[in-house]
Design a protein that fits this description.
With about 850 residues, the protein is α+β, with helices and mostly antiparallel strands. It has 24 helices and 26 strands.
């Protein structure tokens, strides 16, 4: 065969030294040596992590046999024969009843000696050192495609394998083995005549019966062997049930008799679709064919591909490829492992080797989908070794160039596009971050990728522009490409005080909306000879002209007390405090907080800290901040003056509170996080309260909801007011009673002494009551001390209970006194009536 197996020659060598051959008249039995058994165990248990590839291996061997007979028939046409014998095809027969799987090809076939040579040994590719390294775990056992040991992968799922094979004009023989210590070869005189070819029948292990299921087998064929050159026919059952009713009146018979019906089979051509990448890229291939193929290999994408390229590379390395750039991100987003794997399907001889290759392409291109098919790649090497081969490196470089060309083509199309939304900006919105990662990691293609970048600027807030457009708009005296971290569409970055001096000079500033943007700029350093410059870094605070330098010198001297005071106040919170020449172009911003040289913006610093936490690393990055003071700000001038004229400690405390608040406000304004937002809020509210120009509100009683003493006083006052009202009502009734008695006695109402009813003079009968009411009925000092000793949760209930008891006692005493008063009034009436009777007698 064209593709033999991974360790045949080596095991053949061992066989020649240590195996024993026993022959009888009908059967040849070969005993493996101990070394061969050990290697067989290694093949089954170590070299294969995915069992389903056994079927791919067997079908690939069938394709090799068909290729070989096709080539031989060109020299000797009799090899093919005529009619059905001339058909070159593969048949797969799963049988769940027998728990077997059979693969048949009409290929070249093997005679007895070839069965012993090809199936009794394993193809040689290396030495014993390779297998010893695999066994010791010092070499990657995951073979690319895991070819070379293909036939023996059958023992991953089968505990017995029977191979029947026949060459043209040769006898038909059977090879049988359980994959343990020996195999047998004998002539097949009873079986079905193959005419030519090979039949491999696997007796499946108990746990691997799934591989006798038609649907499972079809899925594996379509996954790995869909595009091989020869037709693959799968035996399928036409009817789902093998039993039917034996009677005609099934409706009247709840349990009809059943009789077994032989299943009816047909053979389904499962690989009808040809490999589209094998077609000539220059011929007319419908867009619909490419789109359908894209959704076949990339079902996770809902939209059609945005662009694709189909090419055939023949220089240096021969391979065919189709590459797609998706129309959007996947329906469920990118999986976590997408960062490591490239989703380019690798085929060798149209047989799928792998759907994901780690580190095949740069990771920023993990959104690209496609296929690569090459016949120049070796099969019997590990994945690590394959990716280090010259052919693989050349394929990767070519594919990267093609992908960048496609992205450039999208950008060029957008210039002439009449769509409402720019096609390239749509693409950039989904995959722009990938391009930025490429600018960081792919040094070879950095210049090409940088031309694909797009950013909003102070002059183009709505529509992003390229770096080439930015450079074309630069002022003649502008030396740097200025940028500021922040997204103008979701933040107030456009009002940043850092922008004011550059806007006045007419300089355009790039907005970096993602944290990766700043990392990209620091890695690139320059573009087209112009260095990148962050306007939030302190090194942008430069005095350029001689006049500015002289003025800065004067300001430094004038505000030296304030800068020294801020350094002492803020301590390690800032690296230094300095006078800002760039803020001096305007008087609105008293101060800003910039990043020191070598430091990064707060947004990038936050990302670094998050990454350290995610990796459980000890925090190593420390932000370095510089406080810049505006010498033309009225607040800064006042603070400098107040600092020099402060009289006492109270003035110093006020200045310190104001200084800390200025620092924390600058932190918030420039994207930093303050440690204690509550303290900052308290400072703000305090200053708002003291500095507000609003009129004072009327003095209102303090909130007494949880002041038990005030609650008690209010309740007592209400009770006392009620008793006083009752007292006044009693006085009124007494006055009316006296007036009535006076009228009955014939006396004038003027004769009544009204002073007896004055509020400050208690009635003689109620004198004791009114005296107690005037004194109040609240708890004594001893009661108050007692309340203080009680737990706060018990005070309310205790107080209510005691007040209720006191009120009840007062009510009882009042009723008793009222009763006594009425009794005395009755006695007085009787006495007056008695005196009147005596006068009449006289």
């Amino acid at each position: 065969m064209k593709r033999l197996f991974l360790i045949v020659a080596m095991l053949g060598m061992v066989m020649s030294e240590g195996s024993e051959v026993k022959e009888s008249s009908d059967v040849t039995s070969i005993e493996f040596s101990a070394d061969i058994s050990r290697l067989m165990k290694l093949i089954v248990n170590s070299l294969y992590s995915n069992k389903e590839i056994f079927l791919r291996e067997l079908i690939s061997n069938c394709a090799d046999a068909l290729n070989k007979v096709k080539i031989e028939s060109q020299v000797n046409p009799e090899v093919l024969g005529e009619g059905d014998m001339a058909k070159l095809e593969i048949t797969v027969i799963p049988d769940e009843d027998e728990e077997t799987l059979t693969i048949i090809d009409t290929g070249i076939g093997m005679d007895k000696d070839e069965l012993i040579q090809n199936l009794g040994t394993v193809a040689h590719s290396g030495t014993f050192k390779f297998f010893e390294a695999v066994a010791n775990g010092t070499m990657d056992a995951d073979l690319i495609g895991q070819f070379g040991v293909g036939f023996y992968s059958s023992y991953l799922v089968a505990d017995k394998v029977v191979v029947t094979s026949k060459r043209h004009n040769s006898t038909q023989n059977i090879w049988t083995s359980t994959g343990t210590s020996s195999f047998t070869v004998e002539e097949d005189t009873k079986g079905e005549n193959l005419h030519r070819g090979t039949k491999v029948k696997l007796f499946l292990k108990e746990k691997e019966i799934q591989y006798a299921n038609t649907t499972r087998v079809r899925d594996i064929i379509m996954k790995y062997s869909q595009f091989i050159d020869f037709p693959i026919f799968l035996r399928v059952e036409q009817e789902d049930k093998n039993y039917r009713s034996a009677s005609d009146d099934d409706e009247d018979n709840p349990e009809p008799d059943l009789e077994y019906v032989e299943p009816v089979y047909e053979y389904e051509h499962v690989n009808l679709e040809p490999a589209i990448w094998l077609r000539d890229p220059n011929e007319e291939i419908a867009d619909g064919d490419y789109i359908a193929f894209f959704h076949t290999i990339a079902p996770e994408f809902a939209e059609d591909p945005r662009i694709w390229t189909h090419f055939h590379q023949t220089i240096d390395c021969d391979f065919k490829s189709i590459l797609f750039i998706p129309g959007s991100i996947p329906k469920l987003g990118f999986a976590a492992n997408d960062r490591r794997f490239t989703h380019i399907r690798l085929y060798i001889h149209r047989v799928l080797i792998t759907e994901q290759l780690e580190n095949f392409l740069p990771r920023y291109l993990n959104f690209v989908r496609g296929v690569v098919d090459s016949e120049d790649l070796p099969l019997n090497v590990s994945r690590e070794m394959l990716q280090e081969t010259k052919a693989m490196r050349m394929i990767a470089r070519k594919i990267v160039r093609k992908i960048i060309q496609m992205m450039n083509e999208i950008a060029e199309r957008s210039k002439d596009s009449e769509e409402d939304e720019d096609p390239y900006l749509t693409f950039y919105r989904d995959f722009g971050s990938q391009i930025k990662i490429g600018c960081i990691e792919d040094h070879d293609n950095r210049k090409k990728l940088a031309k694909l970048l797009r950013f909003n600027t102070t002059e183009h807030e709505e529509y992003p522009i390229s770096l080439d457009d930015y450079i074309a708009n630069m002022k003649p005296d502008q030396k740097y490409i200025y940028y500021i971290a922040g997204d103008p569409t979701v933040t107030t970055i456009t009002k940043s005080p850092f922008l004011i001096p550059l806007k006045k000079k007419g300089y355009e500033v790039l907005f970096f909306p993602e944290t990766i943007d700043e990392a990209m700029a620091k890695e690139m350093r320059t573009y087209d000879g112009r260095p990148f410059e962050s306007i939030t870094q302190s090194n942008s605070n430069k005095a350029e002209s001689d006049k500015e330098k002289q003025r800065l010198k004067e300001w430094k001297k004038e505000f030296r007390p304030l800068t020294n005071w801020f350094k002492k106040l803020l301590k390690s919170n800032v690296t230094r405090v300095e006078i800002s020449t760039r803020l001096a172009v305007d008087t609105t911003s008293p101060c800003v907080l910039s990043s020191a040289e070598g430091s990064v913006s707060p947004q990038l610093a936050e990302m670094i800290r998050a990454q350290e936490e995610r990796l459980n690393q000890k925090a190593q990055y420390e932000e370095k901040k510089v406080l810049e003071l505006n010498p033309r700000s009225d607040l800064i001038k006042r603070m400098n003056y107040a600092l020099q004229t402060a009289k006492d400690k109270r003035d110093q405390e006020k200045l310190e509170k104001l200084g800390r608040m200025m620092f924390e406000t600058a932190m918030l304004d420039n994207g930093y996080h303050i440690e204690d937002a509550t303290v900052y809020a308290d400072h703000v509210f305090e200053i708002m309260t003291k500095m507000t120009g609003l009129p004072h509100a009327p003095v209102m009683p303090d909130d007494f909801m949880f002041d038990f003493e005030k609650m008690r006083q209010q309740e007592e006052e209400e009770e006392l007011a009620a008793l006083r009202a009752e007292k006044a009502e009693k006085r009124r009734k007494l006055r009316e009673e006296k007036r009535r008695l006076a009228r009955e006695a014939g006396l004038s109402e003027d004769s009544i002494d009204e002073s007896e009813f004055a509020e400050d003079k208690p009635l003689d009968e109620q004198e004791e009551l009114f005296q107690e009411l005037e004194k109040g009925v609240g708890p004594t000092k001893a009661d108050e001390e007692y309340f203080k000793e009680l737990h706060v949760e018990d005070i309310d209930d205790k107080r209510d209970r005691e007040l209720a008891e006191r009120k009840a006692k007062r009510e009882k005493r009042r009723r008793q006194m009222e009763k006594d008063r009425k009794r005395k009034e009755e006695e007085a009436k009787r006495k007056r009536r008695g005196r009147g009777d005596d006068d009449d007698d006289d």
